[in-house]
């Protein structure tokens, strides 16, 4: 298994401290009030605006945040995907998924290889699994429990039957559309930490299965920054598989990202 390089006033009221002074005229005491002198009260200092916690990721709709443009960014080439799923998985971290105005950054993935007892490829070629046996760089989209749309990136050469599940992403552009599709008005990690949430945020259905991710239009996979550090761990929800596959460290995530699904405590830096 190979990995890439080791992969934010007090204002007081004026005091009436002036006392009446007395002036004596023969035997008569005349009270002559001394003119009161009021101190000039300085305006209370302007309280600096309260610092609010900055969002984990820039909100492109906010004018105070830098605008990220992907207009001239081309999808990754077909050859990028046609390698072993275990090599492709960590290389997908930091890359961008784009569909129209929605852009997500991949933060967590899982690799599924050929002859893997946890992979859909174990069933052989069926109408459902046929796309995962296609050439690397295509999408394999399926329904989990008939509810959750799961996006996989097909890996390796045609006929191998391997892929990488996109487990979690971070929102980069199109937050309003993402929130609408997800039915959640939040910018917290709960919005996109889970494979079904990613598929929903992109508005995917099984009709997107077999779609080439390296061609402009539709759903595209764009190049992005390589993470400085990554975490590895066993995959999630595959207790039915053989022990060696259940324990295999084929789950990868960006180390300093909050956009990682549960459980996090099974992830650790690679040896």
UniProtKB/TrEMBL annotation:
**Gene Ontology biological-process entries:** base-excision repair
Q: Where is the composition biased (Low complexity)?
A: 1-21
The EC number(s) this enzyme carries: 3.2.2.21
Species of origin reads Medicago truncatula
- Give the Gene Ontology MF terms in alphabetical order: alkylbase DNA N-glycosylase activity; DNA binding
Checking InterPro entries in the record gives: Formyl_transferase-like_C_sf, MPG, MPG_sf
Region Disordered, residue ranges = 1-70
Q: What is this protein called?
A: DNA-3-methyladenine glycosylase II
